[in-house]
Each structure stands twice: as C-alpha cells, then as structure tokens.
Design goal:
CATH superfamily: Flavin prenyltransferase-like
Distance between the termini: 57 Å
Radius of gyration: 17 Å
CATH architecture: 3-Layer(aba) Sandwich
Oligomer: single chain
Strand content: 5-15%
Number of strands: 6
Order of helices and strands: EHEHHEEHHEHEHH
Largest sheet: 6 strands, parallel
Structural class: alpha/beta
Helix content: 40-55%
Number of domains: 1
Strand order of the largest sheet: 3-2-1-4-5-6
CATH class: Alpha Beta
Shape: globular
Length: 210
Amino acid sequence: MMGSSTERRKGMVVGITGASGSIYGVKLVQSLLQLGFDVHLVITNAGWRVIKEELGWNTSDREAVLQEHFAGFSGQYVYHPIADIGATIASGSYLVDGMIVMPCSMGTLSGIAHGASDNLLTRAADVMLKEGRPLILVPRETPLHAIHLENMLKLAKLGVRIVPAMPAFYFGPQNIDDLVSFLVGKVLDSLRIEHNLFTRWGEQREEQEQ
C-alpha cells in the first residue's frame, strides 16, 4: 500500500529586475502571499537599486526589509539571491505553478529570449520554458526598438505571455495604487487566479443599476 502524501502548496516564482516600476513587483508578491501562494522571490542587483530609488526602502539589510513588507501573510516567501544557481527553482524537478518577471527589463528579456541562463532569474525562466510551465513577462520600457520587439515576438511564439505595463483607465482609477492593482490583476488573470484587485469592464454599470 502506498504511503499517504501531503498536498503540495501553491508556489510561484517572482522576479524583480532593474526596470522602472518596482512597485508592480512588490504589489504582485503581496497579492500572491495574501492569496495563499508561496512565493520564490529573485531580485537582480539592478532591481535592488531601483527599489531603493523608487520606493525608498533601506536595502542595506535586505532580509529585514523583505520581512517588513512580505511577512505576516497566509502564504510564505523565500528569497533567493540572484547568484544562487543551486537554488530549488533552478531545477525543473522542483514544482512550482509558474513564474512572473515584473517589471522585466529589456536586458533580462533578451537573456531569456536567447537562453542565457547566467543568473538564477534567467535560469528559473529557462526552466519554465523547458518544462512547459506558465511564464509571464511584464516589460516596462518606452520607446521600444526593433530588437526589443523581436525578442518579445520570439518569446510569444514559445508561449510566453507578454503583459506590458500599460494600465487602463476605464475603471476610474483614483490614485497610483489603483493603476498598480489593475496591472497586477491582469497578470493574475493570465494565470487564471481569482482576485478582486480592480473593477472589471461592465461591473461599474451593474453597480450603478443596483
């Protein structure tokens, strides 16, 4: 008789790079944790720099600042240093439900598109591709030149979801958090994860009629 097995907890890899918009990645991690996902977090060196510049976090003590912003949710986070190529998420035998890079710099996008697994983030993305698991990239760059577009097309043809950081305005956002929540919600939609981060098209009319 086979021994009893425990149900695997839902897990997601989140990468935060040096593109502007680190607030998107932070909101995504917090939303996933709140929904009960375990989050494997990878932040590039440039990503830490942008977090410090844009959010004012004290990144001199990285473990402490991550605890401050990501502890206390129903899900748990695991921080993996960018150079730790021996981390669990570097192997296809380690099961997770998908990966999101938010925001995704053009350098990281290029590395993924060309299979350059030279750090843990690009290696984890390569694992998603070779194992056929969901991979979502949220590029935040403007304007885009032909190489950027060609890399995105190459990845899209491989099944990668490209979700540009383009917030909508039809739901009547009142502040920056509304715009950030909308984009995070669109990413969760791409993964078929239920949430209530924004008001959907048509819901305003239903609320008014009620």
